[in-house]
Amino acid sequence: MTTLPSLFISHGSPMLAIQDSPAHRFLRDMGRSLPRPKAILIASAHWETIGNPAVSLAAQPETIHDFGGFPDALFAIQYPAQGAPDAAEHAAALLELAGFAVERSAQRGLDHGAWVPLRLMYPEADIPVAQIALIRGGTPARHEQIGAALQELREAGVLIIGSGSLTHNLYELRNHALDAPAPEWVSEFGAWVKEKLQRRDYDALIDYRRLAPSGARNHPTEEHLLPLFVAIGAAGAAPKAELLHSSYEYGILAMDMYAFS
Residue 221's CB: how many other CB atoms inside 10 A? Predict the structure, then answer.
């Protein structure tokens, strides 16, 4: 069996689901370019638990519309993928072996950080999906350790995805057009991350808030970048990073996507 890469996907705004853009088109084609997984385990910026990671064992996860102020068409979308309780339980066991206490949710569904990109990648909703939570307030290093504990799943045909956004400062969103150019403080941060990934300088990435240009400005809170570290950790020690896609939406959302192997 082919060992799958781990992925970091920038999911941007919920409008990515229905609004044409370079990132939307890329994700529509992306699923066909990957070996078909047996299941998907996705760490979304929109599920955080306190103190410890959590996994969802839901057999039929609901589609969660965890946003407001968007068109009715978004709220009408359902993503009826089956859950992946076996993969989720395997993930929980691996995390426990690595020293994590793990919470298990019987009901947690798929938030938009999960179903928006997955609906584009796998529109038939025919691959079982489970979510794993981030730790609220957890460090990048802690989330890399979460990913590292899950490496074995890739060899079992599970696609591990971290879904967040390479940049995510919504306080700076001021009626920008979808195709607005990125300001320098956004583009410089993306270029810095790309350079560190290409050089496999993961120590610098973990310390991005101190070392990266405008690190804290691009991430006033960290939850949208932490899935990157889960994806990095899941690919093993000092993995190779491949930039799959780069674009911007509304100027301030860098939509970069990476594969790690």
Answer: 14
Report the DSSP beta bridge partners of residue 8. Answer: 162, 258
Q: CA–CA distance from 151 to each of 5, 147, 239 (Å)?
A: 10, 7, 12
pLDDT in tens, 11-37: 999 999 999 999 999 999 999 999 999
**Mean pLDDT for all residues in the chain:** 97
250's tokens:
């509304």
- Rounded to whole angstroms, how far apart are CA atoms 114 and 43? 8
